[in-house]
Amino acid sequence: MTRIFHHRHTALPRSLMFTLLVAALCLLVLSTAAWSRVGATSHTRAAAGMPSGSGTSGRGDWWMFQHDPQHTGRSPFNGPTVPTIKWRSIITGSSVYSSAAIGGDGTLYFGSNDGNFYAVNPQDGSLKWTKPDAVGSATQWSSPAIAADGTIYVGSADMNLYAFNPLDGSLKWSYLTNTGITASPTVGTDGTIYIGSDVFYALNANGTLKWKSAAGSTRSSAAISADGATVYVGSLDGNLYAYNAATGSVSWKYKIPTSNIDSSPAVGSDGAIYFGSEDGWVYAINANGTLKWKYQTGGSRIWSSPALGTNGNVYIGSFDNNLYALSQTDGTVKWTFSTGTSPWTSPVIGADGTVYIGGLNLYALDPTNGTQKWNVAKTCYDASPAIGADGTIYIGSSDHSLYAIGSAAAPTLTLTKSASVTSATQGATYTYTLAYSNTGSASATNAWLSDTLPANIAYIPGSASAQVAVTNGSILTFNLGTLAPNQSGQVTFQVTVNANATVGSQISNTATIASTEVTTPVASNTAIVNVVASQRGDWWMIHHDAQHTGRSKFNGPSSNALKWKFQTRAAVRNAPAIASDGTIFLTAFDTGTSSGLTLFAFNPDGTKKWSYTNRGLSHFATAAGTPLLPEQQLSMKGTITVFPESGCYQQTA
Q1: Domains in the chain: ranges and CATH
Q2: Among 138, 295, 380, 463, which residue has the fewest nearby CB atoms (within 10 Å)?
Q3: CB neighbours of residue 426 within 10 Å
Q4: In this predicted model, which residue has the larger pLDDT, 121 or 551?
Q5: Where are the beta strands (DSSP E) in 538-579?
């Protein structure tokens, strides 16, 4: 499909421009009686009875063409991850080339080539108000800008810059220039409005002239330096102008030898100015007006305006059907992406760096390599996108509408993994817990958990709290079925630390969750358990182990020679426990009156390390009255537990 004049800052064929100018002049003559001129030489026309500060609603984040006065095209919000068309606005009478601006209440403002200016509701794109009476039948390429008080400024091919009340679209004032306006207004931090037409104008917030430059006609939209002192704009005379914002004097100008400039400039963090030209080159100009670099694209011309990424890239389209990512430092090509048609629209950037560009489709591109993340097909997206605070992308189309592209309802899966201990010894058992949830707005079907155990632990069969499939003894898969929005749950299972696990090493384990909709598994945090040395010897309780096998992995003595003995004052009738350092723990009735119980700790050579006595305790008994001697048990951490008649006592070794 052949398209012409698809960029809001587009050069018009002379025949069409002449026709439009004639129509605009006729309109002007017919409507002169309806306006009250302010002063004999003033071009500002104020609407009767409309105070300049009434009807304020503020402005949203995307409040002018390419987002901000520097025209970085960079939003603080991310666009949609899984895109869907949320709504299509009221169908206007012609293509929508004007890029939307967003008001403080979310209202979308844009112009159409049917000559009308529209305000639509952000919820469904329904009409809030329209202004056919002020703009008339003139075409609308200009994109609106919003002042801090909510006033909306937009240019028209009928040669006027209009100021509208955001609440009802009533006219605050208009300023008549000498030719049709296709440029978009830029609003400075002091409220000054900059607009290009037959010359370049600076207007006060009340619509009066602040200054104007006699330089050539301007279709480029101005960008302002970060300090607000300098205004940069391209001209049809082939110059990029740097104006003093306060006085309008020319600080410097940079001449493109063989072409004019329709592309709107963007100002980088280092003060450099980036723009394209009708000669197909991309230029970077230092803040002092000297050339930083230039790059020749494969296209014959550039109407697209640049967007500047925080990653050091400048993105701009060319008439060779490509979007270019160039280094802001030296202009080298990082990557290109073919849009399938000449991208006269301008790219914009989400907070995560994703690049969005309109064309035959709306494309979302990875900023690192230009690969396509997604696209939304429609007729043809003729305007530059705008990104709302909720991540919705608003973009005009050749099918006479504004589209809202938002995130489709989708599940959001999360997974947290935890261990019941932070450290464990060789042979120890502990529990893992996998806590999962779906915090998204849609169900996750066929959801599943996967956990691949590292080599230094082993799954204990039958210990899982839910049905689990075990592959190769180490890959655990839990099928969760469908997880509704806001549904959560958990599964647990036990593992044993291998006997050959290296003391001092870490057991690091991460699980994942996925579903039919979430095809890239979402990883949990990493649960870490430290492998530590045991504080007990091989024979650490009665009958050696928890199973009471009475079986040691060591051989007994080869002779009956006595190594040592220790004399207590009463009988010793229970089994010792041995710590890893060889300390021997033993209980005995050693108070001299058999009315108390003493816990002894002996060095391996038989000398006493310490003892602990509880008087009045002698034994405990079963319910049947059978006498039982107290026993001691040594924990992994070196705590000795003794079970006497009237309670449980612990002593740290």
Answers
A1: 14-407 (2.130.10.10), 413-531 (2.60.40.1510), 535-653 (2.60.120)
A2: 463
A3: 18
A4: 121
A5: 577-578
